[in-house]
């Protein structure tokens, strides 16, 4: 293995154990980032070739979505082998080279761990199918007898997250539980063999130099399936107070305590962040130093571009972080939601009495093929730039999703025949799925597949991607890419203690706060200009004229 010399943009890799607390982490969806061999699928060598781009962008770490062997029934989240690389994406040697290159450029590596379920192609599940009822192999999963006179009905009427029954019958008549796709059988976390194998996986990747782990659906692992099993209606009525049969159980933290001991056995300790869709009062359990250590805050994924919502979300989540002793996380887009540049260009989400969206924001627009309601793409882009500076100015970790630094919009008009997300196939006419945010990146405006790779792209790229290509934005001081690069560079210079103090500028549609050492962030959520406080404007998402920040814009100032 050879390691090229780091670029001029490389930073030295810190050995500080708390490097993650205010890191900027860039999510790479490997199959859609860069294709090195022209087969239409992004791969590990493709990412390695683009490490200088990531270094120039200025990120502290990358989070790799699953790259393991997979049938791609759920974009790689159906894992057939947790300790290998999908041969279509590369080899373990390629992964070692990627880790080495990233570390040489001062960038840490976080990988996805998917512990709730395996692929039905996993050796364990194939063994379970062959072994039959009552076998040790079946006890690694959740098998039950069916109901009805001949057991031909599923054990319960539970529905999977992706639609349809959460139970699938096998050849000998038993049924297995799958919270997600039928190809993703849930593991039995009461089985010591399951627990021991995941500890082995964590050590496998930690020993290869991985710095941390993102834990997929961290709130779903442990379950209480004591008979009689409740109906779907009974299940939905049960409080999620740590004793729910399927979700957010207190005993899941026994698993994570064991994992924490593994993480702490390394120097510096390996980190972890939980994907835990739980009540806010439960978040500190996952973010505590005895458990995973940090938990995603998804509130901004569901927020409108609205001053009151943004300020409430920041206040609430900083309070939760203080309770756990962790730092909070800020996320505007990821591989599961409509890109925020598009969300902000659509009408605000419909909300229930508690202020929660009644459906996925942008779903109707996607179902219409991107025609109804009308998208104001320019306004969405303007708001997205403002939101980016707001988030990057906050204390805590910022998670960026590949392509947001380009201002990419969601791709709505993917032909049905080209779609890949199981949500689309299991929920026809109700949910279009997540393919639109997973379309391969445009690196160049004029090359084949916009520079993604010589052999096309596994999801079709629209012609308008040319306007967002990296080669067109590179060197343009007004581009979104240049804004992100400058913001990340300034963030490293300005970031100090994890504190902020709110500043009242006399308008409800303006949010402003000061960070230690006199760094002030102002975001104008309204449409009328606002006078900025006295100070030097370091960066703004739109031109500042005569000391006034225009509507739907953010600015960073040095005020002390």
| Count of strand segments | 17
Q: Which descriptor suits the 3D outline?
A: globular
Helix content: 25-40%
What structural category do the secondary elements indicate?
Answer: alpha/beta
Mean pLDDT over all positions: 95
Strand order of the main beta sheet, please?
8-7-3-2-1-10-9
Percent in strands: 5-15%
Q: Count of helical segments? A: 15
- Backbone CA Rg: 23 Å
Structure, explained:
The protein is of the alpha/beta class and 560 residues long. It has 15 helices and 17 strands. The strands form 4 sheets. Strands 8-7-3-2-1-10-9 form a 7-stranded parallel beta sheet, with helices on one face. The chain has a 5-stranded antiparallel beta sheet with strand order 11-12-13-17-15, with helices on one face. The longest helix is centred in the middle third of the chain and has 18 residues, at 307-324.
Draw up the topology in text.
Blueprint: E1 24-28, H1 44-49, H2 51-57, E2 61-64, H3 92-104, E3 108-113, H4 123-131, E4 143-144, E5 167-169, E6 175-177, H5 192-207, E7 212-215, H6 232-237, H7 252-264, E8 271-274, H8 283-287, H9 307-324, E9 329-331, H10 340-343, H11 363-367, H12 377-392, E10 397-401, H13 422-426, H14 470-473, H15 480-494, E11 501-503, E12 510-515, E13 519-524, E14 530-531, E15 536-540, E16 548-549, E17 553-558
Parallel strand pairs: 1-2, 1-10, 2-3, 3-7, 7-8, 9-10
Antiparallel strand pairs: 4-6, 5-6, 11-12, 12-13, 13-17, 14-16, 15-17
